[in-house]
């Protein structure tokens, strides 16, 4: 086997860990429940995403900018033979939009697939469910954060992908309605 670049090695490690998590038998009531999370960093702040809320992970995909009234839309990328809209995860959470740094894409949705672009993937976390708590008001003010997870000495807000999906769909619907009125 040839030497892999650091990015390819990270992707391979994540893929293997992800695949292994599905090969394990479901835990029984006597065993500890585990949350599988992706650790990311947005605007220098640690965050996490639940693995169960995404449908895939891609990196280094070219995102083509398109005109849009939705400022968080970075553009579209070719994923699995189709065009997928890519949104800036940082911008959706209220941070400045950084188009050039969306190196990683967390894909979500089944019929209407979309992606969340971010620059820093820190790794895969297996966190005991007892270490996942309801978010305090301070974390909720960022929006789309309902829980926080304590792992590796950090408290990471857990981004709610269903909440982001709902907001994106609502905003797209509002833009369609306003463009029809013109």
Distance between the termini: 59 Å
Could you name the CATH topology? OB fold (Dihydrolipoamide Acetyltransferase, E2P)
- Structural class, by secondary structure, is alpha+beta
CATH architecture: Beta Barrel
Numbering strands along the chain, what is their spatial order in the largest sheet? 9-1-2-12-11-10
General form: globular
Strand content: 35-45%
Question: Number of folding domains?
Answer: 1
Give the helix proportion (percent range).
25-40%
Low-confidence stretches: none
Largest sheet: 6 strands, mixed
The CATH fourth-level homologous superfamily = CheA-289, Domain 4
Please tell me the overall pLDDT.
Answer: 84
Q: Treating each run of at least 4 consecutive H or I residues as one helix, how many helices?
A: 4
Number of distinct beta strands:
12
